[in-house]
Amino acid sequence: MKYAEAQNHIGGAFLSPETPWLDVFDPSRGTLLSRVPLSTAHEVDAAVSAAQAAFPAWAATPIKERVQVLYRYKALLERDIAELASLVTEENGKIDSEARAEVLKSAELTEFACSLPQIVTGEVLEVSRGVECRVERFPVGVVACITPFNFPNMVPNWTIPNAIALGNPVILKPSELVPLSARRIVELLAEAGLPPGVLQVVHGGQDAVEALCDHPGIAAVSFVGSTKVAKIVYRRATSTLKRCLALGGAKNHLIVMPDANTEMTAANVVASMSGCAGQRCMAASVMVAVSATDHIIARMAEQARAMVPGKDVGPVISAAARERIIGYIDEAEKAGATIVVDGRKAIVKGQEGGYYIGPTIIDHVTPDMRIAQDEVFGPVLAIIRTKNVDDALAIENASPYGNAASVFTENGGVARYVMEKAQAGMVGVNVGVPVPREPFSFGGWNDSKFGVGDITGRGSIELWTQAKKMTTKWNKEAGTNWMS
Ligand code: NAD
Q1: Atom 38 of ligand 1: nearest residue by CA position
Q2: C-alpha 445 – ligand 1 centre gap (Å)
Q3: 176 CB near ligand 1 (under 6 Å)
Q4: Is the pLDDT of residue 482 over 70?
Q5: 20 to 30 Å CA-CA from 37: which of 132, 177, 244, 360?
Q6: pLDDT band with cut points at 50, 70 and 90 for residue 480
């Protein structure tokens, strides 16, 4: 085992609970990396108690003081970027440049949290002579943050900096497939001065998640993962009257018009479908090619073929994921689609046990095929051919998901038309991965998000605070009136 076992972190102490344990594997080699405890309601209970104990003092600390911890945390993320990125590479498999980008994004998320004191100033108005109404924001209480495997460093940082800046203690439940980065997040925040109890980590899977959803001491839950589990978590957490924002899976469509710039489009589409081995909720999954686009597809194929597994594209997360993804490619081929670039036989010398798939481009996919409908979550692009932009939009909008959509064109009118009509929460023009950056908020529509508000940026302020409306009368001469 290359790393020590992952431990829970409760009330400032790292603990190994007496629970069943799960082995954690290195996706690049298929070898044992660590093991992770499968916590139960008992460990969740202890984490909630520790968070509740820390809550009053943390909530009473002025926000300008709370964010001083985050200024230091951001500097520590930057100081340790090489080590943090290599940990992400070890547990998730993504290549070094992608892992570094992930940690840099965590720093950007923290930078936004540092700016919260400038944004969450309250409101005040003299509503009648001597009578003042004001609105102030208060923390909601203990919040749970449940995260997926694909961004072990960044997705926890979607929630942690904003939630704690706004005065809430957090209980992080990382994906059991990638439990290692959580420890460094805790250690760096402690080094930055976060008081014990403000951040807990409870490792595990379904049991831990269910206990978090059920616990009466938790006020709010953020979840990021598949749509299937997002629905379960949203229903369960809200059934116990918690706030919940649950981000789900995706099936992102890129519409490519014949007038699109060949080089820019090919580079963006290939980067979007193959980056992080296609394991991004913003990854291109379907390209809807409108009329004469053969020249762009040919250039994409050249670029995808030139990518070297192990160097330019990392492995997928598990042997099971690899098998599932290859199953989708096999099925599409049998159904009559054309495999233009085939990554099924990818092998990396010296890492034969790794879960590699090379970039795969499949042309002449039809909308009824499973590969056109399901989230594949691998470096695979299905191309569907259409005659015009309305047909392309109809294909995009038939998907139950609604995370991202993009159009590639030189025509501003077409670009605006697609941006208006696409049923997705994040849309782009000539951008393969249209992730909004802070202060803008991240969040999809339809089956890609359940709950109100967004998880990052300004949208998260509503999620992590509750507004108190205060009416005061200090002027003794203020008369009584109809609303006294
Ligand atoms: P997942 O749904 O399998 O797991 C997410 C979390 O839920 C993990 O912490 C896991 O332990 C827990 N979990 C798993 N099964 C559970 C169950 N039955 N009951 C309760 N909890 C359970 O997702 P994943 O495979 O780790 O991540 C990939 C998915 O996440 C993809 O669908 C991807 O699109 C999605 N994702 C979405 C976004 C977004 O912003 N919308 C961002 C990143 C990833």
Answers
A1: 281
A2: 17
A3: yes
A4: no
A5: 244
A6: low
